[in-house]
Amino acid sequence: MRAQIIQSNPAPFNPKPIDPVTLEVIENALRNARVEMDATLVRTAMSPGIREQGDAFPLIADHQGRMIVGQFGSYIGPFLDGYDGTIEDGDMIMLSDPYSVGGAISHSNDWLVLLPVFKDGRLIAYTSMFGHQSDIGGMVAGSMPIHATSIFQEGVRIPPVKIYKRGEYNSDLINLIMTQVRTPDWCKADLNALIASCRVAARRVVEMAERFGDDVFVAATDELLQRNYRAMKQLIETSVGAEPVSFEDYICDDGMGFGPYKIKCTMWRDGEKVVLDFAGTDPQSPASVNFFLNENMLKMFFGIYMIMVFDPRILFNDGFYDLIDVRIPKGSLLKPEFPAALSGRTHALGRIFDVLGALLGQKTPEFLNAAGFSSSPHLFYSGTDKRGKYFQLFQIGFGGIPGRPLGDGPDGHSLWPGFTNVPNEFLERYFPMVIERYETAADSGGPGLHRGGNGIHMTYRFLEAGQIAIHDDRWFVPPWGVNGGQPGARARKILEKADGSQTIVGNKQEDIAVDAGDQLHFITWGGGGWGDPLERDPALVEKEVRQGLVTVEGARAYGVVIAGGIVDAEATQALRDALRRERPDTLPTFDYGPDIETLRANCLAETGLPAPRQRLWTATALAAE
């Protein structure tokens, strides 16, 4: 049953013609309102994940629930279709259950607040914000258990509920929720920050409507949506062919010894629509690496990629959704059946961007990016300090952005452009640790005419005994290069005990005991290279050797010989000639590195870890493919 909207003023909107100047003013006012939402959030949240790293995502939608500004696309339409209740002036909805909104939020750590905006008795817009809570209870600190086999093990699940009903705050409900989490002070502060952000945007929307009139404001939102539709229609016609193209990539493992998991997508244009079909993707995992991919979210991902690559001037919104047909098999890794665990979904989420980029780039290789830092690796550290006070860290790591048509990939960057690093000073002030090293991992970016960005080598020294957990990927299957560029280096994690002994630890591992004085070397992966590395300017390679981005030995992958800190021109020419003779005349569009079976055979020697085993799917699971 669809939600019932209660309005004291039943008069319909009467959209009016809108001139370009007014449209421009309203468009930029909406952009600014989104920025103000972010600013409000980081000033009032407490957890480092939201306050320091910005792991939260705003949205402003029109009165029908269509996103006008935001990042993940609107989940409001599917929510309204499935919400058996009323929406009234003074209400505010909260939820965290992915299964209640078709995967619009993809794990229970993301708490979402939705505020319907009423003006003069009519619903005129929606504002919303969701952010990652550092802990929501469950079987492990941080509430993202790698070994979870059910969403019930991952912490409190909140179905759509009213935290404000006709303006009255439901304090009993909030108290009930906060008793389920390990860090209630942080959670409550972060929830209040989400609420405040939505209220700020609601005020700005009402101000716009008061300034220009309700009908003009509605006309402006309609035109912004239609403009996006027209632009995307043209981009699809010129950039997507009718002949199907396919691509597949992998999540390395599930943390339980099995992998890799294949994600496959086939794309083609059917009339004016583009079809994205994930048939051939592996069945869902018994572990938590499943990603409940919402169709609208994928449409927005596709739109963001198209817009930013081909026409970055467009303000992306929901207006183009009718032009995209998304097909995801039920029971697959990207459409798991309830109650599948979802907390480790970040690896598949990020890999979607690599897959989309590869699909679109096959027709237009000049726009093709390599595989990059398509994940958000997590470190968790928890325990009790000498004062008896519980501490718990959740931090997102950064890595190498791929080599691109226009230049090198940035070193040590986030998958999400808006994320920022937690300052080392903050970590050392609020947690019992010292950051001994924070630097680029030399040679981790894939060689190319445009080098892939390097990963990060970050070393934590723990001052208190406790437990750590690691969530990362790309340790088994390397990030591929394109147009002659080579793959980037894979991720590694090394635990160095206080006595100096070292152990390679898994990239998805829970409950690792650490003692005071132990160090963790958290090394992330680099981006793949773009273009022929033998065409890279030797002077630039020499400069990067001086900067510590490339080693003397690593320079040889570019055919560059460094002697005494400078390029040996004669030796460089000889090496480049020899390398050209040894390789095919035509360089591959995609360089994946060794095939899966070769990676398995060499895994222990190359990574220090046993190779993941291929899972034997049941007949039911295979039917989902």
From TrEMBL:
InterPro entries tied to this protein: Hydantoinase_B (IPR003692), Oxoprolinase-like (IPR045079)
Domain Hydantoinase B/oxoprolinase: residue ranges: 19-533
Pfam families (alphabetical): Hydantoinase_B
GO biological process: glutathione metabolic process
GO CC field: cytosol
Molecular function (Gene Ontology), one example: 5-oxoprolinase (ATP-hydrolyzing) activity
Residue runs in coiled coils: none
Record's protein name: Hydantoinase B/oxoprolinase family protein
Native organism: Sphingomonas populi
